[in-house]
Structures are given as structure tokens and as C-alpha cells.
């Protein structure tokens, strides 16, 4: 049978069928005669490889895309470089939003300035309104995910911010500069507005915090990403931390920033 390119790969390809001209000078048996077996030369092999490289499957592999086989279908997930603090399930969240989300991107004149925005609506049993997750993919590779779901800190939406790692060269020294990237949660937390040591005023405002220290229901988003059941202990720990911060806002300020340090000059 002749070699053929299919969705499963190259079929009927035997490397022993390749005949190189230089092999003829080495003596011994060259291979099949013209009337037996497939006649497949080196030139034919190069042509086949060229055709194979033009297929969507191989093009995607060359771009660093990951393939997961689900039954007989192939699902493509673009690889997201690992950034410092990024949870393992984040690429799955991005993949689901890309696949199921509605494109609500704002048109731009220059494609390189395009911010791809997709919205995913999650139906909640017993509730009229769905939970909404909106993803913004920026040209520099950074990703922002807005989670308007239940369980946000102080009953408000929260966001996931991903910045990819990158490498650069220090022109002065010629040495490589490696930035590991980062992953943070933007959520509502207490912030001190005290004007003196006798003042314990605070306000609730958005601020960046690590994935581990966030009090919003990150596990809810993880479940949306993976479709898997989250261990109850993880959910309970995050819920308990959220309740503590909401009930003890000033304690949260002290735990994160230390005691408020304001000079007496403010009172003068």
C-alpha cells in the first residue's frame, strides 16, 4: 500500500523502503526490484514529509500545541508557559473559555493591538442568573480572567491575572535576564485609612494577592476549569479564611501589612 497521511498520522510508511543513491556503492542487496513492494525513494519521502508538515495537525504540533485524545476526536489545547504562582488547572480554564465562550472582542484597526475577549456563562441550578467568567487575552501573552461567581471576597467579583515568563538580554553585560512571570488574584480586601495610631479606620478595596492567600472561592473556578470534584477540605479552608477576614478586617490588615505606622505629624 502507498503511504498516506491521515488524522492518526502517516500510514503504510516503512523506513526500510527508502533507497538512497549512495547505498548503491556499498554492495549487497539494494532492496526490492521494481516489480515488488512499494517503490518509495528518498525524494518521495521528502515530498511526503513536506506534505505532512502542511497538515493542520503537524502545524499545531510545531507551534507547541498539546493534543488530548477524547474517544476518536482530537482536542487541541495551546500550551500556556508556566508562570510563578500559577495553579496547574489554569490552562484548562483558558482552554474551556476559548472553546465554549462567546467572542465579545472589540474590533481594532491593527491586528497586533487586538485584545481577544470571550465570555462564558455557567448555569447554576436553582438560580435564574448564570455565573459569568470573562477572559481577556492581550497581545503580550498576558491573560485576565474576571470571575463574577458566588464566593467572592466581600460578596464581590474577583479576577485572575497571568503574566507569562520572558527572557531578555542585558545589553550592558550580555547576560540573560529571565523573568519568571507571575500569577495573582485581584480581590476586595480591607485597606487601612488610619490617620493616627488611635485610628482604626479602613476601607474595602481591590488589591493583588497570591493565589494561596486569596480568600475568594478559587476552588469554584477550578471546578469550572476541570469539571472535577474539589476536595472538601480545600473548600472548607478557603471558606473559613474568607469568613475570618470579613469578620475581622483590621486583623487582616495587621496580618498583611503589620501594625499601622503613622506619624504624630498627621494630627497636627
Architecture overview:
The protein is α+β, with helices and mostly antiparallel strands. The protein is 24% helix and 28% strand. The strands form four sheets. Strands 5-6-7-8-9-12-13 form a seven-stranded antiparallel sheet. Strands 1-2 form a two-stranded antiparallel sheet. A two-stranded antiparallel ribbon has the order 3-4.
Cα-based radius of gyration, to the nearest Å: 28 Å
How many discrete domains?
2
Which percent bin holds the helix content? 10-25%
Span of the ends, CA to CA: 94 Å
What structural category characterises the helix and strand content?
A: alpha+beta
Low-confidence stretches: 64-76, 264-268
Kindly summarize this structure in a few lines.
24% of the residues lie in helices and 28% in strands. With 268 residues, the chain is α+β, with helices and mostly antiparallel strands.
Helices and strands in order:
Blueprint lengths: L3 E3 L2 E3 L30 H12 L2 H7 L2 E6 L2 E6 L11 H11 L1 E2 L12 E7 L8 E7 L5 E6 L9 E6 L2 E4 L6 E4 L2 E11 L9 E9 L7 H9 L5 H16 L1 H9 L11
Antiparallel strand pairs: 1-2, 3-4, 5-6, 6-7, 7-8, 8-9, 9-12, 10-11, 12-13
Which key phrases capture this entry?
single chain, 268 residues, alpha+beta, 7-stranded antiparallel beta sheet, two-stranded antiparallel ribbon, 24% helix, globular
